[in-house]
Every structure is written in C-alpha cells, then in structure tokens.
Write a structure and sequence with these properties.
The chain is of the alpha+beta class. It folds into 3 domains: 238 residues, Uncharacterised protein PF07075, DUF1343 (Rossmann fold, 3-Layer(aba) Sandwich); 283 residues, 3-Layer(aba) Sandwich (Beta-lactamase), CATH 3.40.710.10; 114 residues, Aspartate Aminotransferase, domain 1, CATH 3.90.1150.140. The protein is built from 23 helices and 21 strands. The strands form 5 sheets. A 7-stranded mixed β-sheet has the order 12-13-11-10-14-15-18, with helices on both faces. The longest helix is centred in the first third of the chain and has 16 residues. The protein is elongated.
C-alpha cells in the first residue's frame, strides 16, 4: 500500500538507503515551440469507459479479429477520444498502428459520394427535391427509360443488381468498362424497399463524372475533401502510413505469389475502374472521418435543406447512409460500414460520433469486426451523458516532448522502461505503447519493463510477480525486489522513467525512482526521466524526515509535501548522492508551479486504485499520516482517502474536536470498506471534500486530525506506527499530546536544496 510498510520492513530497507546516487546532468533547454506538433486532444471519456475500450481492443487483437485499429469518439465541438492499437501491418514485416494511419474505407466511400452529390446539387439553382427526383437518363443513358432518379440511387432503390460480373470490367477503356457495367445493371423496377448493392453507387459516381466533366477523384478532392479540410483521397500508393489489406491472387504476375494489396483499393470492381468509383476507393485517416462527422453535426458539411434531405428515411436507408443503427444510439443516428473493417456512426440527438478503422482483412481476409464494432458502440453510447466536452491543453508532458522530438534521445539504444498505467502521453497513449511502436519499427530496442507498486495496470494490490508484456520481460519492483537487480540492467543503455507521482514523501513511486537511480548508477546506465505535474503544486509542508525513520517509503530527507515534480525530485536525489551517473530530464512545457490539476487541461489517469480523482490526491498526504493506525481511510470504497473512520469512532466528538479546516468541508458519515482493516464492518467517521484547493493544507490537516483523534479516542486509537509515517519524533509527540507542532524550522533548512532543484 502507498506509504505503509510492514512491521519488519522499515529497518531492513533503511540499511540500503545510504547506497549510491547520481549527479544530475539535467538539460535546461526547452524544445523550441515552433518545432512542436499541435497538441492532440486529451481523452474526455469516463475513465472506466476508456479502460473498457482499451481492454476490448486488446482482446480483439489477441483473438485475431483485427491486427490493429484506430478509434475516435467525438462531438460537434471536437474529438474526446482518439487512440491506435496493435499493428498496421503484419506481413511482410510487422509495423505498428498509429493514429495517422490511412485506411481503405471500402463502402464508407458511399456516404462520401452521397455528400458530394448533395453538395453538387446544392450549387445549382434547381430545387433540391426536384433535382433528386428527376430521372438520371440525361447522364446515364444506359439506365434510360426506367425512371431511375438520384434519390433511388442514393437509397439503393433503383432496382439494380447487387453487383455485376467482373468480366464486364476486364476490357476497354475505363469509360467503356463503366458503361458496360451500367448497361447490365437493371434487374427490376425502381422503388420499393432498399436492396443494398455496389452498382447503385457505381452509377451515382458515373452520374457525377458526366455531369461535372471531371473524374470522380478530382471532383471529390475539389468539392468535398479540400473544403472540409480532409486529407482523404483515392490511390495513395504503398506509403508507409497506409494500412495494407489482403492477398490478391488475381493481381499476381504469372508464376508469382499473390501480393498483399497495399495502397490500392481492395474492392475488385473499384480496382478495375482504376481505383476510382462511387462505391469504394477512398483512403482516409480517423481524423478525416472525425472532421467529416463534426462538419455534419455542426451543419458545416451541407445546407440545412440538403442535410434534412440526406437524413430522410426510406426503410433502413437515408441518402447514402444506413439509418438502422441500434447499439444504444438514437433513432436519428446514421452511419456506414466497409468490407475492410471500417465504420462510422453519427448521432445528432446525442451529439456523438464513433469511428472505428481497422484492416480486418489483413493479411488473409479472415478477420472479423462486427462484434468489436457493436461492443465499441455500446460502450460509448452507454456513457454519452458522462462525456466531457473537449478542452484546450496548456501543459505538454515530458513524454509529449519526447515524442515531438521523434524519440531522438533513444534512437538506436537498448531501453528499459519504468512506468505504469498513468504513464501516458496527454492524448492518452501509454508510454509503454509509444516505445513498443518504436521497438517494432526498429528505432530502438525495448529490452525490459519495470513495474512499480500496483503493477503496469495501476490496479493490483500487494506484492507483484514478474511477468511478460508483448514478449518484453517485466520485472516487478514491488515484489521480491524493490530495486532493479544488476542482471536486469546488463546490456541496457538507458532507463526511461515515466511515473505519475503524488508529491508526498512516502508515496512509493518516488522511492522506486530513488532505488532505480541508485541501481542505474551502480550499473553505469543512464536514466531519462519524463517529467509530469505535481498534483499538489509547489508548496512545502513538513515535518522533515529524521534519519531514524528512513525506510523504503521514507527514502530521503524530505518534508511530507515536497513540492517538486518527478524530474525536479530526480535531480535533487541525484545531486545528493555520492556516485555520479548520467541523468537527463525531458521537461514539461506550459507547466507552472501554481497550477492545480484542473488548470492543465489534462485528464487524470489514476496512478493507483486508491487515487481515482485528482481531488483524492490533494487529501492523500494528510489522511495517509494516520493510515498505519487502526483506522480505515476508505480503501475498498468508492471514496478512498476521502473518508476516515472505524467502528469505534464517535464521529460527532471527532468532528467537534477537529474544528474548521481551511479549504475543506468535513461531515459525519458511515461507510463499509471492502479492504482491511474492518473489511465488511460499518465504520463511523468523517467525509472529507476539498472545496478550496488554494487554501487547503493537507499535511496540516492530517496532523490536526491526528491530534483530534488523540484527544477524543486516545484509549482506542493504536498509534504504534504513527511515528513511521510522520517521520519526526517531536511532531509525533506533540500530536499524541493533542497538539499540532510547528515544522517551519526544519523546512527552512531544507529550502536551499529545494530551491536549487526547482526547474519551473
């Protein structure tokens, strides 16, 4: 548990504390602002939903449903979630999926062609309904005499065959092949129920080409993609950012093995039409479809009249779209899917869109995406009331800066990574995923992972075992060892550290950092710390740790609230160590010590199962002071560290003895923890809520709480371990006497070290 050691642990761990350290060689140069990429959106989905999406995508990849995927969720005002998973390419050599990957949209091309048609008609003076219901005979003489209209084509009600024989597209010019396919398309009279088929949109694309005098790709680029700011296009070629699809025996040279389709359309009819057709052929990124959805939700894609016409239902079809969505979306929702594993859903009633892009046919055509698509839709639509609006980010994390630099500091090196689930870029990409992608791409070798308390997933309790993650060995530093063993660093060039600390002296991530610095110095291995905000800000609160109380958690002479970011703390620890080694810090940009977490624009990823909210972190340094006693601090409830109590507590007398606390609301409460002590027992105590973070002093509150407990429940309160957490004998004696001692003198002595470590 954070900050709590077993009875025999303190003395044993203290013996190793005097070991080796590092001299900081920290770079003070910030990355020039002009070279930085735009800030990606921070996730605004509920954390539980984000976790569920991550888990479902991992499951889909493990099951072979898809090799990888990119997901985007958003509203009219922007993206609230965007993430890539797995591999873009499995064969001939693995390549990681990225958020910038371009996909063959397959039939998701159809609604794009529909939008192009509506925008084209909107530019002409003829009333829209009249234009939609006029026969297409003037541009499509192959369909003349059947009174087929554009509305029929757009809703799959023109009576055309679902698909034509490929032999009709084998010979002659593109125009001749297209004409031959259209001539054989009619099968029944137009009207009636929709009957989905590619020929309806092959015909629509042909109508647009003939009406405009331009080929469809040029027309769509000029009239749709460029006005909406989309990078989408036809025929991108086998670029590194394009996801390949499947093996194509019919495209192989005589005697050659079937090639994997890469950068050209998968659909056989579109391919025979030079990759440009109304039903398939567009390649796009998840950002392209997100911008499209935002333009439709915000009214920028079409005039109101055309938008209303597009959403008019004909059975299960709208103009270019499927309007029978289900999966938790409203009746106003519309969307489309593609054979290659692509999909988009837009729900105006819920101001929501969901884009899932996969190349599920890669490499052998056997992947499946239907269940994944449905599960993703249900997860997102079920949380629609809890989705927060996009908001600007002002802080660029250390990992963001490292990524903006192209991982240049790690290029060609063997890397070990100490991280956990809260070690993520500000767009939510785990640092482990970032380095794994670089490993797969050959930029570096990810040789080992180190996991702190709570493990890589930041969810486990107690001692952890070693393991493997994606073929990379994982060494737990909260199990049989608390420091990287020498053999785990052999052959490693640099240890990268990305941990979300909480700013309290006894939080174990800081002590794990310290142990790692010492081990790396002993092994002659460099350390690169990726800096992160201190959720407690830059203020100091004592008491200072005395040497007699040093342990694994109380690892260095620090006040309880040390006021440093992880990078600053690493520099302080390194500068006071006897053994020099190389330490570099990738500093944040935009962070100011006066900031609260809510000022950063970042989402809070719980670094521990017991710190679900940044507000919990504000309470932690104070409430944790009494955790080693016979009190419950709410572990195993929905509000850990936001309640404190026991079955024997008189809540009213404790509340009265505590008195008013600046910046904190305190109320009497009862709760039933699901963790020791008092698992399953009703506890009486206090509920705590920070209502003014700028005025709240968590350590002062924790000492005042301890003093109030001593005054009101001294005979029942077991305080043998209280001194280990406070770490300062005079302060502990004062608290047990019911008083709160001043800690300013010791802080003044520490202040010079603290000021020299400050970067921001």
């Amino acid at each position: 548990m954070e900050g709590v050691e077993s009875a025999g642990e303190a003395a044993g761990e203290a013996a190793g504390e005097a070991g080796h350290g590092l001299e900081a060689a920290q770079s003070a140069d910030e990355v020039p602002g002009e070279v930085l990429a735009p800030l990606a959106p921070a996730p605004r989905l509920p954390w539980a939903v984000e976790q569920a999406i991550d888990q479902r995508l991992a499951q889909a990849i493990e099951r072979g449903e898809v090799p990888g995927a990119v997901v985007a969720v958003g509203r009219a005002d922007g993206i609230v979630f965007r993430r890539a998973y797995g591999l873009r390419q499995v064969e001939p050599t693995p390549a990681p999926m990225t958020e910038e990957t371009r996909f063959d949209l397959a039939s998701v091309t159809k609604p794009l062609t529909a939008l192009l048609a509506l925008r084209w008609l909107d530019r002409h003076e003829r009333p829209l309904d009249e234009a939609l219901d006029a026969p297409v005979d003037d541009q499509l003489p192959e369909l003349a005499g059947r009174r087929i209209t554009l509305r029929h084509l757009l809703t799959h009600r023109a009576g055309l065959r679902r698909a034509n024989p490929l032999r009709e597209l084998e010979e002659g010019s593109r125009a001749e092949r297209l004409s031959r396919a259209l001539a054989g398309a009619p099968e029944r009279l137009p009207g009636g129920a929709p009957r989905y088929g590619d020929l309806h949109f092959i015909a629509l694309g042909a109508w647009l080409e003939r009406a405009s005098g331009e080929r469809l790709d040029a027309l769509m680029r000029r009239e749709l993609f460029e006005p909406l700011g989309l990078s989408a296009d036809f025929n991108p070629g086998p670029r590194d950012d394009v996801a390949p699809t499947e093996r194509a025996p019919r495209r192989a040279a005589p005697g050659a093995p079937p090639p994997i389709i890469h950068g050209e359309v998968d659909d056989p009819r579109a391919w025979r039409l030079e990759g440009v057709a109304g039903h398939a052929g567009v390649f796009a990124t998840v950002d392209d479809l997100a911008r499209l959805a935002e333009a439709l939700l915000g009214g920028a894609a079409l005039r109101a009249e055309a938008h209303g016409a597009m959403r008019a239902r004909f059975g299960s079809r709208c103009l270019g779209w499927d309007c029978a969505i289900g999966d938790g979306f409203s009746e106003q929702a519309y969307g489309h899917t593609g054979y290659t594993g692509t999909s988009i859903v837009i729900d105006p009633a819920q101001d929501l869109y969901v884009v899932l892009l996969t190349s599920r046919v890669h490499p052998d055509g056997q992947g499946r995406v239907g269940a994944l698509r449905r599960d993703l839709s249900r997860l997102v639509s079920g949380a629609v009331g809890s989705i927060a609006p996009p908001r600007p980010r002002v802080v660029r994390l250390g990992v963001d800066v490292l990524r903006d630099e192209g991982l240049d500091r790690l290029r060609g090196k063997r890397v070990a990574l100490l991280t956990h689930d809260a070690g993520r870029a500000s767009d939510g990409l785990p640092t482990s995923e970032l380095l794994w992608r670089a490993h797969v791409s050959g930029q570096l070798v990810l040789a080992r992972l180190f996991a702190p308390e709570h493990g890589l997933a930041s969810q486990a309790e107690g001692a952890l075992q070693d393991g493997v993650w994606r073929g990379v060995p994982v060494t737990s530093l909260f199990g049989r060892v608390r420091s990287p063993p020498p053999e785990t660093l052999r052959g490693v060039d640099v240890v990268v550290v990305d941990l979300q600390d909480v700013g309290a002296r006894f939080f174990t991530y800081a002590s794990t950092l310290h142990a790692t610095l010492r081990a790396a110095a002993e092994a002659g291995v460099a350390v690169l710390v990726l800096d992160r905000p201190n959720p407690l800000g830059s203020e100091l609160e004592g008491p200072m740790l005395e040497p007699a109380h040093r342990s694994f958690v109380n690892h260095h002479p620090l006040p309880v609230r040390h006021g440093l970011t992880l990078g600053e703390l690493a520099g302080l620890l390194a500068s006071s160590a006897p053994r020099a080694s190389e330490l570099d810090v990738v500093w944040m940009q935009g962070w100011r010590p006066t900031m609260r977490w809510g000022d950063t624009g970042l989402r809070w990823t719980p670094p521990s199962p017991n710190l679900p909210r940044p507000e919990t972190a504000l309470l932690y340094p104070g409430v944790a002071l009494v955790e080693g006693t016979n009190l419950s601090v709410g572990r195993g409830t929905e509000t850990p560290f936001e309640v404190v109590g026991a079955p024997w507590i008189d809540a009213a007398s404790l509340r009265a003895a505590l008195g008013d606390v600046e910046g904190l609301e305190v109320a009497e409460t009862t709760f039933v923890p699901r963790a020791r002590p008092y698992r399953g027992e009703p506890c009486r105590g206090l509920a705590l809520r920070v209502d003014d973070p700028a005025r709240f002093r968590p350590v002062r509150f924790g000492l005042a709480l301890a003093a109030a407990l001593a005054r009101t429940h001294g005979s029942r309160w077991e305080t043998a371990r209280l001194g280990r957490m406070i770490g300062h004998d005079e302060t502990t004696r004062a608290v047990l006497a019911g008083e709160v001692a001043s800690t300013s003198e010791a802080l003044e002595a520490f202040h010079a070290q603290w000021a020299s470590a400050r970067r921001y």
